[in-house]
């Protein structure tokens, strides 16, 4: 045919083939990053709840904390959502599920024993499980995995919403993309949280309830819940101060984490200017007392540590700062984060300066 060049046509076909291969490679890379390739396992995502409420010195003790103006909540008693925007997949992306995920109530006995062991090591009385709340906390855990949500509330329009679950929603929660995460793992995570630990050690806490649920069909495959709000009452016997780790029990690395929990909310590492830190050391002096300073020695040598207190904490936003200071101020708490994790065999000396005087003690690490 006049004007037709086979060489030109072959060159055009070769370039078209090259561009097709480039597009296929880019599409494969995008699917891999998104985790949509067959057999590719989704990385674990852990999100814990914002601490419950700060408590006033007289009843009722479960007064709500201030909420962030940037993250208004639907009801005054609710805390702001601790999950950054985009952390929870939209409803349209939720995969098809089994008809009903399993909720676990029985494992609460082991978690209760672990919680009471933690409290005993800090010289705080044991708490009891409240049977009337257990089913509601299990329901809230089920809602978190059912709706793929990580929050202190339940959407009234959600089919998994329940009144009993809503009653437990303001407490601690832990969600994970791993199907094997359970209450014991959640408790270890809360112990490493600078703003969760004081709630676990509150001497006014007398009753708690746990919930656990699993659902293999969603992004969040495991959830654990702990109600630490409704069981606050006037202390009977031992009160403040509370020291953790206690001078006799020390820090057991087989039970407690060596490092501060990642993804804690509010984020204490923003205040400290660190990417990671050691597990928290805490002093609770009680309402009306403020911690002003602290120091840490390991094996007789001063080591750098970051102090979180109601007088000094600064979060990532005004709302985070208000919530963090409210939690710490509710119990006159100071939380010290070593810049490096403590190690087995260490002998630690800690000293806190407070408006009620200086408090110091030492403990071992094993």
Quick structural gist:
The protein is α+β, with helices and mostly antiparallel strands.
Instruction: Report the portion of residues in β strands.
Output: 15-25%
Approximate helicity band:
25-40%
Taking pLDDT < 50 over at least 5 consecutive residues as the criterion, the unreliable ranges are 33-106
Order of helices and strands: HEEHEHHEHHEEEHEEEEHEEE
Chain-wise SSE layout:
Layout: H1 6-34, E1 47-48, E2 102-104, H2 108-121, E3 128-129, H3 131-147, H4 163-168, E4 172-176, H5 183-191, H6 197-200, E5 207-214, E6 222-227, E7 242-244, H7 268-272, E8 281-284, E9 291-298, E10 301-302, E11 305-309, H8 318-330, E12 333-338, E13 347-354, E14 357-364
Parallel strand pairs: 3-5
Antiparallel strand pairs: 1-4, 2-5, 4-6, 5-6, 7-8, 8-12, 9-10, 9-13, 11-12, 13-14
Domain SCP: 112-218
InterPro entries: CAP_dom, CAP_sf
Protein name: CAP domain-containing protein
